[in-house]
Amino acid sequence: MIGYLNLILRLAIWFLLTANFSVANIIIGVAVAFLLPGSPKSRAALKDWLRALGKILIAIPQAYVEAFEIIFRPHTQEEVTLERVPPRRTPGLIFLDIFLITFTPKTIVLKYREDGWYEVHRVRRRKT
Length: 128
What we know:
The protein is an alpha+beta fold. 55% of the residues lie in helices and 18% in strands. The chain is built from four helices and three strands; from the N terminus they run αααβαββ. A three-stranded antiparallel β-sheet has the order 1-3-2, covered by helices on one side. Strand 2 and strand 3 form a beta hairpin. It is globular, with a radius of gyration of 17 Å.
């Protein structure tokens, strides 16, 4: 089941990069998704994938709220924080984590550290 989720993630990235849904591009995308090497040493649990996808669904309305907050109440404070990567993360789940953090307008991942941390840039309102 996890293999299918990796395949779907690869195809989604392919379609986001190309923005082309022609038959030829779909065939090329499927070929690229199958030809990319996988990581046989670490297996992700289905519940980790479902939890990550659930967080992304929650992040969509949160992104709209944060966008309106930035428009109507400017945020002038910036900070860089470290967030721990959850344990047993495959490269696909790490990508989804980074996507989740970067999707919201107030945060962006600056760097993924190999020692298990994300460097996250945040904007905040000025404290009065």
